[in-house]
Amino acid sequence: MAGHTEELTVAGVKTNTLLHIQSLLPSFTKSEQKVASIVLQQTDSVIYSSVIDLAEKAGVGETTVLRFCRKIGFRGYQEFKLALAQELVAPAKNLHGEVGEEDSLETMAQKITATNQQAIADTSALFDLEQIERCVQLLQQAGTIHFYGVGTSAVTAQDAKYAFLRIGLRVDAMSESHLQAMAAATLGPGDVAIGLSVSGSTKDTIDSLKVAKEAGATTICITHYRRSPITGVADMTLLTAAQEGPLQGGSLAAKIAQLHVLDVICTTITLRNKEKALTYKERTAKAVLERKY
Known about the structure:
By secondary structure, the chain is an alpha/beta fold.
């Protein structure tokens, strides 16, 4: 490979990061070369892989992947994936999956509808009903429930707070990192903390779940990646099907998938506690109604 200067292309897009990796191949350790080989050969899948996924594919430890990223000039794995995605993804695809600028409004609407419907169908196919049942029981009995998320997942956390609050559960949602950590430290046995992260690598959310777990609370994560940092601090993992590349943060399909999981849980709790849920729904509806003209 030494001295090889041919431009690399993936899906017709020239990638400086891949060229840079190729130029550094002789300087990598054997373990780092394994990582480089996967990145060069499976580039399209790497931008959707967690650090744990890439480490497993390469047959190395996570620290080797992180060392590889730093050696090629990045501060960490997420920064590396973002740079790679920026070079690989054509501008027309940055906005929404396979929707292109040449598409008519009707075609775009059909594609987006199909994407969102598929997110729900695929997420349903991933349901582990035993895990969902256990989650339902834990939330029904919980003293306090916290939802943690940042970015779009913070919006999902707020949606979950409103839904579970309306059926009489003691619930809160935080997005500011310091507030999350402080609130997590106040939890204890019998409480539940739920972390939302599509990538499974959101540091603030992971750190807050870790604090909650150390305080004695049961921790649950909702993520796309079964093997990701957040699953390591969660007692239970609920999977969503819709994934996001680094340039697709805020994907509505990913948010819909999260909400679908939460809706199944909330609806199950509601139906199993009809009288209590109805009482609180009436109270909360009345409280809001009095603030409308």
